[in-house]
């Protein structure tokens, strides 16, 4: 449990959401202007002086958003939810809602003093402050949702990473040790069927999932019987029917019987760095055509 908490405490990276802050602040400023007039939400744009009024409202809305943003970052570092969510919620309400609401009142008062209309502060409380408070609470809720989403994503990613490590450990401790000489002789090829997904093809044509990398597997198999011919495939010498030298001097392997059609197309080409080793590995067997 302590390891999980330690992992979740690291979930305090800055919220990279500047475009979101700008767009939402702009919409909030527009809404504040539009709801106090007789014009509709879009009609108010055509009113004279709209943009002159929008600029200070936008700057105030953006400042409020930024204040909640910085407050949330500081609280994420000092009082993460994973340590004590009740205490963190109280701090978020005090500093992220109440303190920012007081800041909004102060900014509105400064604006009205600058435009020499301080009496508008009372109308601000009667008409606008409820929406401003809802705006502040909405921003706090937004950062909580983003934080929780990031937390869940991190838990899921690390859960899959842990399961992958566990699977590798199981294979390392048990499966490789269980490859007995008779089992080795029944293996025709081991190859990558998809990204980091491995498949084993047996001499009888059946196949199954393989849980280890090709590098780990080849170290456990007989060097005389098996060779890693490229980054995607291990071949058993008993499964080879013939080897063709192509016009571009590549070695192309053909497997016995139906085994040839069980592997992905093009996977049976010997890579250039392995050609010398492959030739020595084949030895004097009459497989070349």
UniProtKB/TrEMBL annotation:
Q: Which sequence ranges are marked TM in the entry?
A: 20-37, 49-69, 90-112, 132-152
The UniProt GO MF terms for this protein read: DNA binding
Q: One Pfam family name from the record?
A: LytTR
Q: Where is the HTH LytTR-type domain?
A: 190-263
Q: Does the entry feature the keyword Transmembrane helix, yes or no? A: yes
Q: What keywords would UniProt list here?
A: DNA-binding, Membrane, Transmembrane, Transmembrane helix
Q: Which domain of life is it from?
A: Bacteria
Q: What's the protein called, per UniProt?
A: LytTR family transcriptional regulator DNA-binding domain-containing protein
Organism from which the protein derives = Pedobacter helvus
């Amino acid at each position: 449990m302590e390891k999980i908490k330690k992992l979740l405490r690291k979930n305090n990276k800055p919220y990279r959401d500047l475009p979101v802050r700008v767009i939402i602040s702009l919409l909030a400023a527009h809404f504040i202007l539009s709801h106090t007039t007789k014009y509709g939400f879009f009609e108010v744009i055509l009113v004279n002086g709209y943009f002159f009024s929008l600029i200070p409202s936008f700057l105030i809305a953006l400042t409020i958003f930024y204040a909640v943003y910085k407050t949330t970052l500081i609280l994420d570092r000092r009082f993460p939810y994973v340590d004590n969510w009740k205490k963190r919620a109280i701090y978020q309400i005090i500093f992220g809602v109440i303190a920012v609401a007081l800041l909004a009142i102060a900014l509105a008062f400064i604006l009205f003093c600058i435009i020499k209309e301080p009496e508008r502060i009372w109308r601000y409380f009667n008409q606008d402050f409820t929406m401003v408070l809802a705006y502040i609470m909405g921003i706090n809720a937004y950062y909580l949702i983003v934080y929780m989403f990031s937390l869940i994503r991190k838990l899921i990613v690390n859960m899959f990473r842990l399961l992958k490590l566990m699977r590798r450990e199981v294979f390392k401790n048990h499966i490789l040790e269980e490859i007995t000489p008779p089992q080795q002789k029944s293996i025709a090829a081991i190859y990558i069927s998809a990204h980091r997904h491995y498949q084993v093809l047996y001499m009888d044509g059946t196949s199954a999932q393989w849980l280890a990398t090709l590098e780990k597997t080849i170290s456990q198999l007989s060097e005389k019987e098996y060779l890693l011919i490229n980054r995607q495939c291990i071949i058993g010498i008993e499964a080879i029917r013939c080897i063709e030298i192509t016009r571009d001097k590549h070695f192309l392997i053909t497997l016995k019987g139906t085994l040839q059609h069980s592997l992905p197309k093009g996977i049976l080409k010997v890579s250039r760095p392995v050609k010398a080793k492959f030739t020595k590995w084949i030895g004097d067997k009459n497989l070349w055509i």
